[in-house]
Fold this protein.
Amino acid sequence: MARLSVSVPTTARLPSSLPVETSNNAAVKLLNRLSRPSLLSMVLDWLDPSNQALCPPLLQDGEEDYEDDFYPPASSLEELREIYSDMQQRKGSKREVVDRIVEGDWRKGVTLYQLAMADVQYLYDHPGSLKWTAYKFQRLKTPSSEDAAEQQAQKPDSGSMDIPRFHPSTFVQNLQAEVLPDVKAHYNLDRPPGMPLWLLRIFILDSPYNTGLAASHRTASNRAAAAATTSFDASRTIYIAFPDASPHVYLSNSQSTGATTAGESKSLRTLVVEGIPKAMSRPRERYALRPTNLTTRNLAELLHVRGAGRANAAGGGWSIYAGDDKRTESPLNPALPTPPLSDEDPSEELANGARKKRALSIRTTHDKYRLEAKRARLVAQARFGDSAKADDAKGIERVDILVEDSFSAAGGHRGGGRRGVEDEEEEGEEEMDNDNSLQLKKPKGRRSGVDLALDRAQEGDDDDVGGDTWAWKPKIRLTFHGSHVFAGIRQLVEAGIVEGERMPGWMTGEEGVTIGAVRYGRIRGHKGSGL
Amino acid sequence: MSSRNESPDLSIADQLDEEIASLRAQVESLKKELKIQTSTLMVSDPTRKLLQDRSKKRTVNSLDSGHVAELLKKSDEQVAHQQQCLYRSCTSITALKIRDPDPNAVDSGNVLGLRFEVMSKARFVRPYYVMLNRPYPNSRHLRVHRHTVPPCVPLAGLASRHLPAPKTSKGGADNDADDDDELQQQQQDLPRFARALRRELVRYQNRVGIIGDLQKAAELSSHQTSGSDADAAMIQNLGPVDAEAKQISFEWSDGKSGRLIIDDDGRIVKMAVQGENGRDRGAVRELIGGNVHIEKLMGQFEGT
């Protein structure tokens, strides 16, 4: 093994062409996750002539004899392409393709690039497989002197007019400089189809080498025979998404191929969170990352409320101002703007008739219900605007709210019955903790991330504390679960189960957060747009 | 004919569907026409005069006068709308009153809306809105509540400059030297904020528009000359690379790539081109020449 002798510890990144032996379970698992069609289209991509440096298949070179081989290597790329195209046309099992890759054409090893492609392809096939958290870049004040820089923590510069600019290759280079030398990372940048963002996949190995030794199975067992797991088995993957033209960044939760503890993956995430602003900063231009209390599995929703568009600070009912529907609002349009629902109602004449009938006080119960239903729909339209439609594919699956209002002030009208109904419809669970139970809970080991985030939201602004210290403030925690939480609430409003006018604003999702503490009926720290 | 023989029912159904669809489209367009005609008729002087005379007379029966009053009301609405449209198209910043639907909203839901009209490609784009409310107790200071400004326009910076929050009592002893400065900053200046924001919005829209025009011109010129002479390197691709549309990347057909940086107003700040053997200053000179504004680069594409 000539390679062993040149493996020296280094701080460089892992090269994309680094082969991983196919005997490695983790690598095979990555391939096995994919479906047959996407696996085949990916393999055809590997066989593209431009990709040969990164994923070379085993080809017949005439010297070795592959007579009794189950998968004899092809003599040329074209032949191999034909084999896989044929597989694409006929039916078969996924197993067949994976076996051919692992034991046939790439028996010498698949490269890190190929594994990255397989992993990214899995993400495209299953968009909900990762949980994303949105962070915002915030410009820090340039300290006026050296002393000031050393003494005090850096403050955010609220008056800054700069928008951070993301340059993929510079960013990766800078991020590499932040990575510790005993950890090796492989970076893969990709542009998901149909989404305005850059996806950066970071694959981390615990190894000081950036050669084959890092991912090698055999050498590890040779050197330390007892070592059952290689560093590759303890690898971790984390995704960072950079939306175009937006000062936000989305971070996925980290996945590991082997058995790692939750604490380990959390610390990796913390490392990355700390590294990103450093990689983004330049001399005299420092940035920090600020959590924006939004976590969801849905990238489309993230792009909607933390993306480049107009809807960032105009959610819920305000979305009619941001919407990009066909209704033109040009000042050159002479037609009077029509109120919502008036033109989509097919029985407009009928409704008019009903109104006249009501005037003559011959109101039937049927008409009454119909009018009420229409009213509820109008109220829902007013509160939710064009957002929170069940079919808009922008669903948030979990929302955590901590209500801190004193019971008499704002909690009075929040009836318990309504909550119960939401429970059923949203297929959700709701927790109601008062102070005591929360106190009891606290010492029990590690607290969940939601608790921590809620605490942070609570500590976020300490204005108007005091004042009504004597009021009874039960701590109420609401958790909404569902495939599309706010669409569910909208449907409840439309059905007349939730009273639309008296529903608090945070139930419409207009704040664009999934975790928040409510004070005086509003999400704290979001007196408005959360600027 | 053969296909019809195979499935006559389906084809008839298809035909009917098509007919229905075309009729529906016709109805829609006629409805639109009707609306426009109505709105024009309603605000015309003779119509209004006729209506006003009728309503004054009151000699006709009650049913008729009811209709006249209704028509007059509609006409008034239409006149008001037209006046609003006139203001909107002429002044480009207009204010509107909005009610916050949240029952727990501050200041009992009163919200001041600012509407920014921006032109792009000879038409009005959807207006940008900024909604302000008064969340601070014992103070009439405004705060940005909601807005539809895209994140590439530094709204937060402008708001903290021109609409600073009122000082809380605890912040007083922080630094004495800046006291005067801070006192001055305490004053909120809504007109200045609106003007500055409009300027940013227009400049942003203009930059995006110019880059779009350049893209189109580059596409056209590359199509025109692709067949005839391939000796000169053509610009294949160009586009904004940052959020604010201040940096433009260029790609030539011979593999050169460049980056052009412009300032807020579209003036050229600098440009670098990377060729096969290091920096290619000749290409920069060729492209920019003596031009100071990015608009002038259009001539480069038209000339080739």
Residues 97 and 411 of chain A are 60 Å apart (CA to CA). Chain A is about 35% helix and 15% strand.
